[in-house]
Amino acid sequence: MQKQPDGSAATELPALTPLRGVAALWVVLYHYTFQCLPTLNSAAYTHLVQKGYLAVDMFFLLSGFVLTHVYHDAFDVADRRNYWKFISARIARLYPLHLFVLLIFVATAIVFRLVEYAVAGRAEPLPIEGPQSLLALAANLLMLQGLHARELSWNYPAWSISVEFLAYLAFPFTLPAIWRARPARQIALALALFGALCLLAYLTRGNFNQWDGPLTLLRCLPEFVLGTLLYSAFRRGACAQTLSSDAVALSLLAGVLLLLHLGAPDIMVVAMFAVLILALVCNAGYLARSLNVRPLIWLGTISYSLYLIHGLVQHLAPMFVQQGLGLPSSKELPVTGALALAAGMVVISLITGTITYHSVEVTGRRYLRRCLGMWRPIRATKPAC
């Protein structure tokens, strides 16, 4: 048994921690390639990197799956005390690192203005509205930036944890109904949620890279609840024998990579993600053992820190290009220089993410749990189903 961050116990889910790490690195590569290699048309060779935004959809599915694994006993019946402990655990999990990175962004903006004032004798104050404004700061402090990320962003990758937190608020109420529903009703709900994702695909012309406004909820909430339903299917043993072999898991993995390489519609890739998660968690063969190697476990462990801190590295990189290399932007770099810059940013993000995981994420989580009075684990109000 492994202890969860809030003290509740749950058995481990092999392969999901490495999968989360791979997804985090994928989205980092997507953002850095987009910034550092704007003149290199990678889509002429493969759409794999260009589709990196779909890693966020993987996160939403995994989040619903893992949280249902941890809390399905506790929320078999909704309970006010357990609800507060769950929300406290989520705040303690997300907020310390989010706040830390946010304050670095704010401090950087203030330092730039102080330097500008020292050099030119004048400096613009922080704006009231818009990106990196006082209003955006307030929205980030309240975890509301994802509702209008284009105008409320400081650390732009944090939009996803904002909308996911809204899913957390409803999770303890939706989980009991889903967990007690008969398989036929769960299948009907899964089809309805997939229909919602089809609506998203229709409204966005197939592009799931929606990170601003109400469409983010149409992206996050159905995928999060689908993750809950996936775990319910896993617990019932649905398709366990079919999906447990290495051949099936490797075929699904190859299928996902092929769809990404060919630039297949996003809705198809997300649907394959769902089946792949089931296959990996059911796998009892060589693939599960291969994924659970120390480097991939480390990558999955620091995945949240890596995801948040890479936005800060991306924010500061142009300053290095301009001041250190004397170029107006990364567009002026040759391909080899741009590749070196992107590789350096990845390495810095991995090192910094490891440091902030230990010094900020873990330490802050423990401190905030104590402040919120989370001394006892969440306990189920009824025996598990």
Key structural traits:
two-stranded antiparallel ribbon, 385 residues, mainly alpha, 15 helices
Tell me about this structure.
The protein has 385 residues and is mostly helical. It has one domain. The chain contains 15 helices and two strands. The chain has helices spanning 16-36, 55-71, 80-120, 134-141, 149-152, 159-180, 183-203, 215-235, 240-243, 246-262, 266-282, 286-291, 294-301, 303-324, 335-371; strands at residues 2-3, 9-10. It has a two-stranded antiparallel ribbon with strand order 1-2. Helix 1 crosses helix 13 (294-301), helix 2 (55-71) packs across helix 8 (215-235) and helix 8 packs parallel to helix 11. The two termini are 19 Å apart.
What's this model, at a glance?
Helix content is about 70%, strand content about 0%.
Radius of gyration, taken over Cα atoms and rounded to an integer in Å: 21 Å
Strand content: under 5%
Number of beta strands: 2
Query: Overall pLDDT, averaged?
Result: 87
Total tally of structural domains: 1
Helical segment count: 15
Structural class: mainly alpha
What is the global morphology?
globular
Spatial gap, N to C terminus:
19 Å
What percent of the residues sit in helical stretches (DSSP H or I)?
Answer: 55-70%
| Low-confidence sequence ranges | 1-10, 380-385
Instruction: Describe the largest sheet.
Output: 2 strands, antiparallel
Order of helices and strands: EEHHHHHHHHHHHHHHH
- Main sheet: strand order: 1-2
